[in-house]
Design a protein that fits this description.
380 residues, Rossmann fold, alpha/beta, 15 strands, four-stranded parallel sheet, elongated, single chain, seven-stranded mixed sheet
Length: 380
């Protein structure tokens, strides 16, 4: 093995650069050249590469605590259905995956490391079927990649959300209000549930458990009867009421093969309903991109470094078509086929579909049991 490349794709997370650094440093110690593919799968198609180095003034020097990705990323590039803008301004979608395969071969990359979540690894699996040596690293603040206990970037997002809850406590208690915090997570409730426990919230509404707003209101009324005249409610952006649908903020027009649904707005709906049902003033805060950016926690720095080193080790062992994972506290690997699950169609849409294998919160998970035992309402 002489030459490898790193591709970062999907929404940015804290820890991207820590993984990049770990792969580069491990490669350098083995005498292997390491390149960054710029702006995710876009760079793979456009042949935009940059040599990465941790030498003096090298682009990978001093990036461990830095947020974002030094090689960029993309949230809407599917090389199996790629958006092409013609000279006349017209737009069409084409399968450019064979071009990407040829680009990798011409560049001489012995392995491409794909840092990303469900959609990124779906495309990685599809490219591996076309003969590209691929090894994935599980990235997403949503913590919903299958076959691993935790993704890098998640811990930092939870830490930011927990700090926000701490701050909302002050305002809620001072003004006797219901403070609703809407957090990210797409179709999984990991961030909402864990930050609610860490921040001492009174209710946590997650996508896996359709909520009854009246049950949440009852919880808040009971607190008031006991002299607790404020409450904290954490709502995952993908939470939905019983018999209802998730709240959609908008839909992007980026073709098939990517999840074009923009979630958001459920926090304000919950706040309005709780104010009407309880008679207490309610305010909603949407944490948004604050969860994604900034320096990674120490936990994410270590996890990201471990993942990067493990990914390079898998490459040296020739274990391609795999994902570096953490299972029961130990580094391991999983087949990208297992990660994808039943989503077997080439170029198919990733995300919350019947075929997707995204990891959601199970009702018997320790976090659910813990939340219930300490009195956090889950709205059911």
């Amino acid at each position: 093995m002489k030459k490898v490349a790193i591709l970062a794709n999907g929404g940015d997370v804290a820890g991207f650069n820590a993984v990049i650094r770990a792969i580069v440093k491990t490669a350098e110690n083995k005498g292997i050249e390491c390149y960054g593919i710029l702006d995710g799968y876009n760079g793979l198609y456009k042949k935009d590469y940059e040599l990465l180095s941790t030498a003096a003034h090298g682009p990978a020097l001093g990036i461990l605590p830095k947020g974002g990705s030094i090689i960029g990323s993309s949230t809407n590039a599917n090389v199996f259905n790629y958006k092409i803008t013609n000279e006349d301004g017209s737009v069409e979608y084409k399968d450019v995956s064979d071009i990407c395969v040829q680009n990798v071969k011409e560049a001489g990359f012995d392995c491409v490391f794909t840092l990303g979540g469900d959609g990124t690894q779906k495309s990685a699996r599809d490219l591996s079927l076309k003969g590209i040596n691929v090894i994935g690293v599980p990235k997403t603040i949503d913590n919903d990649v299958a076959c691993t206990d935790i993704t890098f970037g998640y811990n930092t997002a939870v830490s930011v959300a927990a700090e926000a809850i701490d701050r909302l406590h002050s305002t809620g208690e001072t003004h006797h209000r219901i403070m609703v915090l809407e957090v990210m997570g797409r179709y999984a409730g990991w961030i909402a549930l864990e930050s609610a426990i860490a921040g001492g919230a009174d209710a946590a509404l997650i996508p896996e458990i359709p909520y009854d707003i009246n049950r949440v209101a009852e919880k808040i009324k009971n607190r008031s009867k006991r002299g607790k005249d404020f409450s904290i409610v954490v709502v995952a952006e993908g939470a939905a009421p019983k018999g209802g649908e998730i709240t959609i903020k908008g839909t992007r027009n980026n073709g098939t093969g990517v999840d074009n649904t923009k979630l958001g707005g459920v926090g304000q709906i919950v706040a309005t309903q709780l104010q009407e049902l309880t008679g207490l003033e309610a305010r909603s805060t949407t944490l948004g991109y604050m969860q994604r950016g900034g320096t990674p926690t120490a936990f994410d720095r270590v996890l990201s470094t471990k993942y990067g080193v493990k990914a390079m080790e898998l490459a040296l062992e020739g274990k391609f078509g795999t994902l570096a994972v953490l299972k029961n506290g130990k580094l391991d690997s999983a087949s990208l086929e297992d990660v994808v699950g039943n989503n077997t169609e080439i170029g198919a849409v990733s995300g919350n579909t019947a075929e997707s294998n995204i990891r959601k919160v199970s009702l018997d998970h320790d976090l659910v049991i813990t939340a219930r035992d300490i009195g956090i309402s889950l709205g059911d």
